[in-house]
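Key result, reporting period 2: structure in, sequence out.
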């Protein structure tokens, strides 16, 4: 699977965190292949990745999800990175028949450096990341001391998601 994102990126590298999930087909394999595709985006390198986690769907039906978080270094702008993530989703056969539908792959831009972005296309930090165990637990595995812009230390939100079922694969 190849992503085609063109870039004129020349700015400094930014650390970004990507939430990854799937619950259709070979979900674990799709998450692992998607992580590799992140490092193939233009001007981007894969830094580290969390373990894979199995989680129950939240605000959705369907099979359990396989989730992970990856840290990348990129020279792509936030919107350019989002387009690259959406292209990878398309390469994996992502369809959006209705909100929260089961999916072959879901890639969310969780954090983009220390930026706060809110426009018609993109909100960073991801608006629900502090409410989701499938985001917080893998994120904290990569960086236990990470701070979410305008929210504070990510670890302070872990007790708030303790009732959400999550297990390491």
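The corresponding designed sequence is given below.
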């Amino acid at each position: 699977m190849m992503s085609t994102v063109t870039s004129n990126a020349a700015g400094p590298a930014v650390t970004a965190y990507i939430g990854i999930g799937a619950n259709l087909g070979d979900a674990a394999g799709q998450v692992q292949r998607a992580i590799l595709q992140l490092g193939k985006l233009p001007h981007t390198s894969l830094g580290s990745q969390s373990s894979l986690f199995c989680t129950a769907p939240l605000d959705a039906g369907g099979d359990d999800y396989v989730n992970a978080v990856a840290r990348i270094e990129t020279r792509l702008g936030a919107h350019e990175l989002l387009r690259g993530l959406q292209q990878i989703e398309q390469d994996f056969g992502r369809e959006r028949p209705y909100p929260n539908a089961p999916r072959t792959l879901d890639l969310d831009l969780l954090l983009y450096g220390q930026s706060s972005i809110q426009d018609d296309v993109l909100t960073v930090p991801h608006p629900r990341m502090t409410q989701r165990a499938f985001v917080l637990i893998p994120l904290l595995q990569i960086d236990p001391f990470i701070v979410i812009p305008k929210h504070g230390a990510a670890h302070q939100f872990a007790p708030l998601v303790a009732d959400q079922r999550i297990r390491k694969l």
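The first helix runs from residue 27 to 38. Residues 29 and 66 are 9 Å apart (CA to CA). This case is discussed further under Risks and Mitigation.
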